């Protein structure tokens, strides 16, 4: 995959951006989801999260470059 997007082997910046963006967004959304789950219940919040995540594999598949993958993963 890295070769397809022109990412050199060992390009730490690209891999770190992927992991960092995922971790930061997941941490922030977990805080928000926790509050929403307290208010509306866990199942509706979980279901809404699943619905929101449905287009992500398509965005990754159609990504024209690495930064689209990073954004879609976040």
UniProtKB/TrEMBL annotation:
Any Gene Ontology CC annotation: membrane
Record key words, sorted: Membrane, Transmembrane, Transmembrane helix
InterPro entries referenced in this protein's UniProt entry, alphabetically: MFS_dom (IPR020846), MFS_trans_sf (IPR036259), Sugar_transporter_CS (IPR005829)
Subcellular location field: Membrane
Record bears the keyword Membrane: yes
Membrane spanning residue stretches: 12-33, 45-69
Membrane topology per record: Multi-pass membrane protein
Protein name: Major facilitator superfamily (MFS) profile domain-containing protein
């Amino acid at each position: 995959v890295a070769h397809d997007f022109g990412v050199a082997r060992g390009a730490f910046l690209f891999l770190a951006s992927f992991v960092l963006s995922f971790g930061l967004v997941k941490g922030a959304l977990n805080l928000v989801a926790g509050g929403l789950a307290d208010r509306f219940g866990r199942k509706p919040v979980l279901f809404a999260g699943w619905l929101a995540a449905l287009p992500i594999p398509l965005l990754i598949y159609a990504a024209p470059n690495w930064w689209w993958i990073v954004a879609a993963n976040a």
